Amino acid sequence: MLNPSCCPLLLYKVFPFLRWFPMVSKDSNKADLIAGITGALIVLPQGVAFATIAGMPPEYGLYAAMVPAIIAALFGSSWHLVSGPTTAISIAVFAAVSHLAEPGSPQFVSMVLTLTFLTGLFQLILGLARMGVLVNFISHTVVIGFTAGAALLIAASQVKSFFGIAIERGAHFHVVIEQLILHLGNLNPYVTTVGAVTLATGILARKFLPKFPYMIVAMVAGSVVAYFINMEFGVDITKIKTVGALPAHLPPLSLPDFSYATIHKVLFPALVVTMLALTEAVSISRAIATKSEQRIDGNQEFIGQGLANVIGSFFSGYASCGSFNRSGVNYASGAQTPLATVYASIFLVLILLLVAPLASYLPNAAMAGILFLVAWGLIDFHHIATIGKTSRAETVVLWVTLIGTLVDLEKGIFFGILLSLSLYLYRVSRPAIDPVVPAKEEGAYHFVDAHGHHECPQFRIVRINGAIFFGAVDFVQNGLTQIDEANPDQKSVMIVASGINFVDVAGAEMLAQEARRRRKMGGGLYFYRCKDSIYRFLRKSDKLDDIGEGGFFPAMSNWIKPIYSTLDPEICRNCKYRIFPECQTHLPDGEARKE
């Protein structure tokens, strides 16, 4: 029988919005309304721009910011995360499907909706399986590299519209650069003028009018310039094309294509979009949570994003995720609860009904200028420079991810993740093995770096920091073997094990083997301050018989006396170092030392 006390907790998990709904008040409602209006104005130009990037009809970018945004707000854990179309997801969608169908065609839209459904399904499964930890394996460097690569792809995709030159749609990055250079003498001056004015206006508006939505200001400026150019020279001469009027109605119901052929084609791209979307959503929500001091549940964010995409695919919404720009604006605008996102979606519907016909005046060149601005803003020059100064390995990861994204966006992020994990595994497979000696002023319980100090000719003390797992076994074993190879008299070794946080089966077997080898040599293997969890594991794996119960010394225990008694008294007789207190008074066999 279900415990009644568990009901609220269960309800909160199924309906997470019940946690914050009691916080709604007159004041919070007012703040959320203001933030919602601001959010709707921000997403209007962005939605159209992102849909253009994705190869979708412009209105689909707005549809993706309506129903999916509401679902993600209600079922996610963040109070300020705003979901919808984003640049990186849009370029990923375009790269995944553009070679399968003509962008903008009904077949293309149908396949994108299928990809969106599968993305949401994967996200939902990962969330329900409590796999939110997966995004932790995608390093910040990989995300920066991927985003920079995606930004360059966005800019490349708009070269055709900005300069009015003929470039095959979906051409690779290097092909676009090559074609641009070849057609420099055939640029359309009218189209380029509109794009340049839009770009310049956007830059100036963002700098001098920070409180105004610079995208809308730039779009209006570009549209006005295009209108007068067409009035002066005629559309037949200028060749200035426009986006076209948007349909002024609610998001229509849609049905993804569930045929085997389509699912087979978009299955792997859906996995790429899934990991990218989850990384963005969780990273953004955590970044804002550091300011709002709110606790984020990564698994709940997975569920919220999954439901948003699954349901959104039936309401003409293509793949969405958390948006850093809109989430930042939402928080900065004073949003108190996720109702701000709900209000933003409602206001967006109202705005769409009012301004949809005006899109027929929006030139493609103006949209290209806006997207150039978006692409530039995506490149994190500061962190790229910092990574280049601080870490050669991370720099390699960054550029492999960036270049891999330019070559093949779907696989670029996986190349980066694989390389990043490989470098991490390389580092952890080489735990630090540092020789140490007892600190004279602290007695036998503290150790200092052995460099610059005398060591016992028969006994070596080393500190190991890191895990002794299957990947590190060979490195650690070589390090221990080199001790007696360099000095055959050092048959006994004690490991200061406080820095060893994990030992697996392979590591335990190696330690047992090393203990047997040293015993045959006439020495032994000892441990000081070994963690209880590691000791229990060695006992459970039947390795204590090889190492010996007496080979483990807890913190603050006298380890010198039992180990000193096993040393060769003849070597000690002629030793000049006498680093242990026992060395000063007697030999290992008990004979008093004669000066």
How much of the sequence lies in strands comes to 5-15%
Sheet with most strands? 6 strands, mixed
**Structural class computed from helices and strand pairing:** mainly alpha
Query: Any idea what the shape is?
Result: elongated
Strand order in space, largest sheet: 4-3-5-6-7-8
- Tell me how many strands there are: 8
Task: State the distance separating the first and last CA atoms.
Answer: 81 Å
Instruction: Estimate the helix proportion, in percent.
Output: 55-70%
Could you list the spans in which at least 5 consecutive residues all have pLDDT below 50?
A: 1-5
Query: Whole-number radius of gyration?
Result: 32 Å
The pLDDT mean sits at 85
Number of helices: 28
How do the helices and strands line up, and which of them pair or pack?
Blueprint: H1 7-14, H2 17-20, H3 26-54, H4 59-63, H5 67-75, E1 83-84, H6 87-97, H7 106-128, H8 140-157, H9 159-163, H10 173-182, H11 189-208, H12 214-233, H13 235-238, H14 260-292, H15 298-312, E2 321-322, H16 324-332, H17 339-355, H18 364-378, H19 381-390, H20 392-407, H21 409-428, E3 432-438, E4 447-449, E5 459-465, H22 473-486, E6 492-496, H23 505-521, E7 524-528, H24 532-540, H25 544-547, E8 552-553, H26 560-564, H27 569-573, H28 581-585
Parallel strand pairs: 5-6, 6-7, 7-8
Antiparallel strand pairs: 1-2, 3-4, 3-5
Structural descriptors:
28 helices, about 60% helix, about 600 residues
Describe the structure.
The protein has 595 residues and is mainly α. It contains 28 helices and 8 strands. It has helices at residues 7-14, 17-20, 26-54, 59-63, 67-75, 87-97, 106-128, 140-157, 159-163, 173-182, 189-208, 214-233, 235-238, 260-292, 298-312, 324-332, 339-355, 364-378, 381-390, 392-407, 409-428, 473-486, 505-521, 532-540, 544-547, 560-564, 569-573, 581-585; strands spanning 83-84, 321-322, 432-438, 447-449, 459-465, 492-496, 524-528, 552-553. The strands form 2 sheets. Strands 4-3-5-6-7-8 form a 6-stranded mixed beta sheet. Helix 23 (505-521) links the parallel strand 6 and strand 7 (524-528).
